[in-house]
Design a protein that fits this description.
Layout: E1 4-17, E2 20-33, E3 37-41, H1 48-55, E4 63-68, E5 71-72, H2 78-88, E6 89-92, H3 104-114, H4 119-132, H5 148-161, E7 166-170, H6 178-195, E8 198-202, H7 206-211, E9 214-219, E10 222-228
Parallel strand pairs: 3-8, 3-9, 6-7, 7-8
Antiparallel strand pairs: 1-2, 1-4, 4-5, 9-10
Helix pairs in contact: 3-4, 3-5, 4-5, 5-6
Amino acid sequence: MAKTIIDAHNLSKTYNADTVPVKAVQDVHIHIEEGEFVALVGPSGSGKSTLLNMIGGLDEPTSGSVVLDQVEITKLPENKLIDFRLHNIGFVFQSYNLIPVLTAKENVGFVLQLQKIPKEEREKRVLNLLHQVGLEDKLNSRPGELSGGQQQRVAVARALASKPKIVLADEPTANLDSKSTANLLDIMAKLNKEEKTTFLFSTHDIRVIQKARRVITLVDGKVESDVQQTPK
């Protein structure tokens, strides 16, 4: 029997913008088992990014709970939540969130340093991932010296470096060409299969959607549909 890895129960998020409440997410329940490869889709403003941020413990819900790998993260104190994220979740953001003063190699290895992974293993893992995303010639380049697509590939490599149980990706292929997108999806699919890493993507990209085995559609902050499919 598959283990539940993500259980978002009755999640809601309301923002009070100019005194007018905006319901970004409304009573969403999502149950995801270990090793699933899931695309979260919907029009802009449907609440996809807000939902991802709440599932990842980056944003506090107005109501509801999030249980990740049997730990209710919505009840964790901040220091324990930070530690849980460090060891269990890989994030890919639309805005990359790379550290400007660090090289590509250093950005990818940063989380591994925080995890106190031995230097030799850290170096091997970082170099392998940067090779897989086609950036072996950019090891010592800082984010400002890289194109948007190259920065996105560094961000994806960083998310995968720690071999997290869960990867939450917000539009991970938004700035990539077709070849780079195909390579990244192949890497993620391999990690998903071999390590049982669970992937949850927020995306508009048909290439990502077709690769997913399950597609959850959000409209106006609510789940409109949740369907299984055969990936292409």
